[in-house]
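Tutorial, part two.
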Amino acid sequence: MLNKQITEGRLTADPELRTTANGTSVCSFSLASQEDFANRDGERETDFVECVAWRGTAEFIARNCKKGRLIIVEGRPKNRKYTDAQGNERKAHELRVQSVYLTDSRPSDTGGNQQPNEDNAPPETPHLQPFDDDSDLPF
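Running the prediction step on this input gives:
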């Protein structure tokens, strides 16, 4: 059965990367996603989506995403039950992330005034040479 959710939003805090007892990476984070339209008072409502990513996806998110970054996540909504520290039964609704897409430019620690250098300069485009061979092509 198809059970998929795609959400665009900004991270409300830096993602939290942890490792399970067997060494599997898991990352938790929350996205704030605003409605496209305003209500009668002129305000746009915001939904908060709790997300969990596993393994390589978790490591990618923790390495490349910080608070305020605009991303798109695609995954499967999941409900789960757990017992809190006080022994109370709780329910959680979260999105188990399968894919993540970075939708804005990478934030800079220098406030966007960073000058290009060898580390962040775009790769050089190879110069193309004309092809003067008039022989038959092998396909």
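The beta strands are 5-11, 16-19, 25-34, 46-54, 70-83, 89-102. In part three we will examine how such features are distributed along the chain.
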